[in-house]
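Internal ticket #5521
Category: modeling
Description: The requester needs a full-assembly model to guide mutagenesis choices. All entity lines are attached below as received. Residue total reported by intake: 154.
Assigned to: D.W.
Attached entities:
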Amino acid sequence: MQFYTILSITALLSAVSAAPLEVRQSGYLPSGPELRYCANPFNTVACYKARGHANEASKAAAANFPANTLHNGKGDAFRHCYWNARMAIDIGVTKAKEIATRHEDGSTGPQREKTMDLANNETGRGVGVRTKTYGNALNECRNKARNGGLVVIG
Ligand SMILES: *[C@@H]1O[C@H](CO)[C@@H](O)[C@H](O)[C@H]1NC(C)=O
């Protein structure tokens, strides 16, 4: 029990400290639903992993796309695709979708940005299921982003 308590606290801190990334992107702050979800011992490990995948996806986006595309552009679309692909590979589609959805509940960004993220998240989970490896998922999300296979604004 103590082990899970420590995991829960770790996941809560992770969720909070992951916030600045999304604050830059869309005014995100951790939502009540997300904090409660991550505090559940059955979900804490997945939440912790999700944060690591967010970091990897951000790094890959910055390495593969121009800085001016990282908000709403192709780089942003790629990031959501690859983030969700990695989560689908690591923790499965169901948990990946649960985390993506609860995270979004706390977002205050414009509706068209949510619609864009939602579509690219969904595409990314499909990519993860199909490709099964992070490397192949990165390639497929990158190709989609470059060739109009993901949703972008502006
Ligand atoms: C897309 O997935 C990411 C990662 O879980 C999440 O932060 C974001 O809120 C999701 N967006 C939507 C619209 O579901």
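Resolution: model delivered.
Comment from assignee: The radius of gyration is 15 Å.
Ticket closed.
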